[in-house]
Design brief:
16 helices, Rossmann fold, eight-stranded mixed sheet, alpha/beta
């Protein structure tokens, strides 16, 4: 018979508790060591399950946030489209009403003219022939003009008109296309000829000026530019081109109550994004030695100098201008002539938009810029200080009105936002409850590429054009353009010149 104990391996760990204690004593081990190992294993398994649950909750929360942002964007676009349709409908109704009123006025004037016009009275001269000398551009009549009265077939009612001695006024009277040849004809006349017809008949006809060749030449050369060149001959003198008529450039002021929120990098990158959309932007830095020019490849600081930075030759983007204003040279805030706004306006000629980087927590500089009635944008970072400072910022702008006399309601944008951080998500929800629509529906995400771009002397739009933060600044540029259209420059009524 085989011994049972001989079949058991002496080195194998027994499963029975009593036998385990005996085995541990024989081998110099302790049972609690095995219990601790199993507890650690169970804790690791529980921790892995807990991490998986947290990851799933975070993913669900991020999906819900993305869905909310998409719904907010769709709602904004729908509201904008509805507003555009409403404005178009209002304009169409106003145009239709104006057209009806003009048609009714013209019909009433035509009926009044037909009722007051006698059947046998001679044709009255038009307004410009009865109340003023003939136009300067019309040539003087020649002695052979009476020959035009010979073709009787074209003027059957000419025999009813008693001709005075032939003068230029009478010749213009028979040539006007608005005068009917037969008094019995019902010919539609424009309103400006029918109005006040009774008074025109009683006015004396002024004598025509003495018609000489030199007089006609003087009249022609004093009025028409091209005809002047015919008589003068040679090459015309070069004229200075008049300044084009430009609309006022909209102003965007970027404000912060504390440093470190990325205000200057936001101004530079936003200007670069607008430049890519064809806008000629003027960036104004109200700190004496700010970093704004370094985002465009500058190597030094030049306060008070207007600097122009051009894109690479192959680029179709618009140039960017920067201006650094030293606040120490602005003088007292209560001065009758505001130096800061005058300096900005003087250097903003040709700019389609102005973006001002306000000095941090500078109330005096901000009040000066508010005289230009700007739109105020406040970048905030997702932390507790931003939540606390929102009420202070709103209170400051309620006490200081803009140049139009209205209180300023600043807009806010989250900067350096990380959607994977729960605190950032919670701060965004709190700011949405505080600000409502004044918190922009998108955020500028956190990335080290912004600091790396400044070290390379460029904005993140050029340093990492395919990054997520470059897309965020594209959304911010689109929002700025939708809020206020850029200034346009027109050249209507300006002659071309040969260079």
């Amino acid at each position: 018979m085989t011994d049972r104990k001989a079949l058991v391996d002496p080195n194998e760990t027994p499963e029975d508790v009593a036998t385990l204690y005996s085995w541990a004593n024989l081998h110099g081990a302790k049972y609690r060591d095995f219990s601790a190992s199993r507890a650690q294993t169970r804790e690791n398994a529980r921790q892995r399950v807990q991490d998986a649950i947290e990851a799933e909750r975070r993913r669900v929360r991020e999906d819900a946030e993305a869905l909310k942002v998409a719904e907010a964007l769709r709602a904004t676009e729908a509201a904008r489209a509805a507003e555009a349709d409403r404005q178009a409908e209002i304009v169409a109704k106003e145009n239709a009403l104006k057209a009806e009123q003009q048609a009714a006025q013209q019909a009433a004037q035509q009926r009044a003219w037909q009722q007051s016009r006698p059947e046998s009275s001679p044709v009255a001269a038009p307004a410009y022939a009865a109340s003023a000398p003939p136009p300067a551009y019309y040539p003087a009549p020649a002695p052979q003009y009476p020959a035009y009265s010979q073709p009787q077939a074209y003027m059957p009612a000419m025999s009813q008109v008693s001709f005075a001695p032939m003068r230029e006024e009478n010749f213009l009277q028979t040539r006007t296309p608005w005068t009917p040849t037969d008094p019995r004809e019902s010919v539609a006349r424009p309103a400006w000829l029918a109005a006040g017809r009774g008074e025109m008949a009683s006015q004396p006809v002024p004598q025509a000026p003495e018609d000489t060749l030199q007089g006609s030449r003087d009249r022609l050369t004093s009025r028409w530019f091209a005809l002047k060149g015919v008589f003068a001959g040679g090459v015309a003198a070069v004229e200075s081109a008049p300044a084009p008529a430009a609309s006022r450039a909209p102003v965007l002021a970027v404000f912060s109550l504390a440093g470190g929120v990325g205000k200057t990098s936001l101004v530079a990158t936003l200007g670069r994004a607008l430049s890519a959309r064809g806008e000629r932007v003027l960036l104004v830095d109200t700190a004496a030695f700010g970093l704004l020019p370094f985002f465009f490849g500058a190597r030094d600081q030049r306060p008070g100098v207007l600097r122009t930075f051009n894109p690479p030759g192959a680029s179709g983007d618009a140039p960017i201008q920067t201006l650094t204003v030293d606040p120490e040279t602005l003088g007292p805030e209560t001065a009758p002539q505001e130096v800061l706004t005058q300096e900005i306006s003087r250097n903003a000629r040709g700019a389609s938009r102005i973006i001002v980087d306000l000095a941090t927590a500078s109330g005096a500089t901000t009040r000066r810029v508010l005289r230009m009635a700007p739109t105020v944008l406040v970048p905030v970072i997702p932390d507790m200080s931003s939540v606390v400072s929102v009420s202070s910022i709103d209170a400051f702008f309620q006490r200081n009105v803009s140049g139009s006399g209205q209180p300023v309601l600043p807009f806010y944008v989250l900067n350096q936002f990380d959607p994977s951080v729960p605190l950032h998500l919670d701060v965004r929800e709190v700011l949405r409850e505080q600000l409502g629509d004044r918190l922009l529906p998108f955020a500028l995400r956190r990335t080290p590429a912004v600091s790396e771009a400044l070290a390379e002397g460029m904005t993140v739009v050029d340093y990492a054009p395919n990054s997520t933060v470059a897309e965020d600044f594209g959304s911010l540029a689109s929002w700025v353009k939708s809020l206020a259209a850029p200034a346009t420059t027109g050249y209507r009524g300006v002659r071309w010149s040969e260079r």
